[in-house]
Amino acid sequence: MRIHRKYTGLVAGAAAVSLLLAACSSGNNNNNATPGASSTAGAATQVEVFTWWTSGGEKAGLDGLVATLADKYPNVEFINGAVAGGAGSAAKDLLQSRLQANDPPDTFQAHAGMELNDYIQAGQVQDVSDLYTQFGLTDVFPQDLLDLLTVDGKIYSVPANIHRSNMVWANPTVLTDAGLDPAATYATMADWFVAMDAVQAAGQTALSVATTWTQVNLLETVLMADLGADGYVGLWDGTTDWAGSEMTAALQDFEKLISYTNTDRDGLDWPDAAQMVIDGTAAFNVMGDWAAGEFDAQGLTAGTDYIYFPVPGTDSMFGFLADSFTLPVGAPHADGAKAWLDVVGSLEGQTAFNVAKGSIPARTDADPSKFTEYQQGAIADFASKTIVPSLAHGAAAPTAVLTAISDAVSKFTTGGSDLATFQDELVAAVG
Length: 431
Ligand code: GAL
Description:
44% of the residues lie in helices and 13% in strands.
């Protein structure tokens, strides 16, 4: 499977297909789109929107959706239910408690793929296929992305964006000061380690990282780099051996990378680690491209204040994740939620949101010229690279597996296990 997309002025490439997640793609929706269909919010008066976008570029993106809501649905009041903590590190547990207590928000964000599938299997979200017809959405998203939102022919959420997880963000001044060429690229992890040694010798942190989920984000990119796209995808379809020697070698690279990082990592969240690059106290940071939204929100200029490139060894891959919004079972203001889903799926909403968020629109008809140079590159890369699912952001594995992997990572990076035990625990985590 390959997510095909065409943007105005861009032709989607025909790269190899690697996005799996077959478990939540057991059917396609065949509703006919109703282009131009609009809706009214009826008696809706409010919508509580549950996200983890509370500051910087993330909040700016959310604000873009809120502005579009005010424009399209002036009678719907936006209630911000956001809970701080990158990648939903605090929000997801709280959301689960609320869902189990029959106290759902009117809509919540969920990652396309296995994470959304968990909510579907638990009967916590409603089929929104009819809204695709009502809002004219059936033909505006790539079919393969719709497949990730679909079970048994029913679609369960509206995608807001597509993010890339396997990017390095770097401070060119720190690199220059360490005697490195900021324009240099590194073909392999080993090449990258040489540059990190130079940064360390110059007295700076080579690689900034934060709390556990950011370490898992880092781990997934090492696995992509060292196992290749097929090997990485094989981790999720059972064809790659988690106990094998190639996996051991990749985990050794992860251990080495962690040795280059700031020791206060577990007390930080992703914006803090990105800030180290901005402030010039670290050379590199591996993070999804919401970092681009953060850098831009701070008024920084790409190419001068910061540079970016795919994690060494992953240039041919696009680490895929997508945020989508749901209609929970028992949503108290379903009409308000539907208005929000209309906004999320609309061209206006997707443009306002993604320009600030650092991601690219899920819609294929957005105008690339409205986006930054980084985003225009990401649009082109998404059309041409091999798409592989992000672990840290719900695309590759169910939440229970991600939680078990995260626990193993945390234990390892805090010194609670050696490499062999770490690998054993990862084997157990995927069961
Ligand atoms: C991801 C989410 C992104 C961004 C990031 C950091 O899980 O998909 O939109 O919010 O977390 O918080």
